[in-house]
Amino acid sequence: xxxxxxxxxxxxxxxxxxxxxxxxxxxxxxxxxxxxxxxxxxxxxxxxxxxxxxxxxxxxxxxxxxxxxxxxxxxxxxxxxxxxxxxxxxxxxxxxxxxxxxxxxxxxxxxxxxxxxxxxxxxxxxxxxxxxxxxxxxxxxxxxxxxxxxxxxxxxxxxxxxxxxxxxxxxxxxxxxxxxxxxxxxxxxxxxxxxxxxxxxxxxxxxxxxxxxxxxxxxxxxxxxxxxxxxxxxxxxxxxxxxxxxxxxxxxxxxxxxxxxxxxxxxxxxxxxxxxxxxxxxxxxxxxxxxxxxxxxxxxxxxxxxxxxxxxxxxxxxxxxxxxxxxxxxxxxxxxxxxxxxxxxxxxxxxxxxxxxxxxxxxxxxxxxxxxxxxxxxxxxxxxxxxxxxxxxxxxxxxxxxxxxxxxxxxxxxxxxxxxxxxxxxxxxxxxxxxxxxxxxxxxxxxxxxxxxxxxxxxxxxxxxxxxxxxxxxxxxxxxxxxxxxxxxxxxxxxxxxxxxxxxxxxxxxxxxxxxxxxxxxxxxxxxxxxxxxxxxxxxxxxxxxxxxxxxxxxxxxxxxxxxxxxxxxxxxxxxxxxxxxxxxxxxxxxxxxx
Length: 595
Prior knowledge:
Layout: H1 3-15, E1 19-22, H2 39-44, E2 52-56, E3 60-64, H3 69-75, E4 82-85, H4 94-101, E5 107-111, H5 117-128, E6 133-137, E7 157-158, H6 161-164, H7 168-182, E8 186-189, H8 192-199, E9 201-202, E10 215-218, E11 223-227, H9 234-242, E12 245-249, H10 253-257, E13 264-267, H11 274-280, E14 285-288, H12 292-298, H13 302-329, H14 337-349, E15 354-357, E16 362-365, E17 388-394, E18 396-398, E19 401-402, E20 405-411, H15 417-434, E21 437-439, H16 444-456, E22 467-469, E23 478-483, E24 497-500, E25 503-506, E26 510-513, E27 516-522, E28 530-535, H17 553-570, H18 576-585
Parallel strand pairs: 1-5, 3-4, 5-6, 8-13, 11-12, 13-14
Antiparallel strand pairs: 1-2, 2-3, 7-9, 8-10, 10-11, 15-18, 16-17, 17-20, 18-19, 21-28, 22-23, 24-27, 25-26, 27-28
């Protein structure tokens, strides 16, 4: 059992708390919180981006999804935490587990600064019938986390209108119209991606995310940005004031809201913390409503879409340069999974407007590729010094947009028939989704089957989602849209950008995932308001792993057309040797001739 768990149980006993919940999030319900709030990792040693921890006097559990099953098993070993694999038959979610375990009179608690309004109500409801109580509590880790990081102090910068296509005042005016329709005077935004999108500001407070700690309060006449002092220089502050946005200290938001009386305020229950809600409701009429800006930012305007297309050319150029380097040098470059990721980041960094990786690169060689969100470490990383299959999932932030791409590569002579069958089957599902037509109003859950069907025909499946929304120079995971089998989301609309990433994972052998980003657009060739996808990503598939006998004529035609486009778009930015390599990789596919 680790010392952190022992210390937490001691302070729980002192506070009279029987069950303590740790979400691993921050006061803004961020998927990737600043280091100060990476409590799940500090407590358990688990480094995945999703999971919930529940600690009682005699049991400690971590609940996470299929992306992290293998990773969590390794990282939790010897920690005192039991892994619960969410989504598997017979595995209760953590609320059901608490409901089944808690006894009458016992107390459940969590840090009110990071437990959302929505989650707090779910917890209360889960334990109410058992006669247990929930306390909107303090941060118990603060008393035992001696070297806890402080508030990040990275500066904030303004994104030029030429990149975002709509001014901050235009966006605020659109939000105010919705506020008027809802009959509220104020709107508090806690979601960091939403604050960044509305204000056209970006920062560097969160690894792999161009975000900054803040709250934004929008009123009928003016707005207030609550942000740590020193992050905005005087010139930007003057610019924000001209646009009707005042600046106040980050930590003053709760006290400031307490000054309001007899006013109505909108708060999003899925984004705002229970702590700030309970303080605000003492004096304000709170209207709970989903984040107004959440869906607005998912629909990219033409400037944003054109920017993303430009980013894809830069990113595709970098990928091809790296793939050419890897294929040409793997025997002599002494690369590992870690150093290969570093080399790719270096090549991306040569592109104008590159602002950093959009997530930590997943470079999984051979059986490491079967770990869906594998994270290589120096001590255990494989060397790329022998023939094998490499799964490479990576992405970049550019001023023009954000990218996310997965390719599976052959190193040396490693294209065995079983791997080619698996790769081509995944490719079939990937292409099926990329070429789908669907009526307006369709949700992602209705499209998910299209990508899975070729795998199902072989008795295979994957447990992660097929697609997630992607921000515009914002987090690579952007709700509320997705393409998932078990999670209904908002209908897909023109201008939304999502991933298309089916996969198959052979534990102990290899993993295959193929991912492009796609944009939703009108299908003008069809009547009746139908939509389709525009493929944005530019990078060749692995020809050596494609078995054309398993593809339909239409699938081959689409892949050939895509490869012609990849060559046309990227070749002007490549050296002579790189061009020759890309020409071979995008050469026309043909059905085998039998007879």
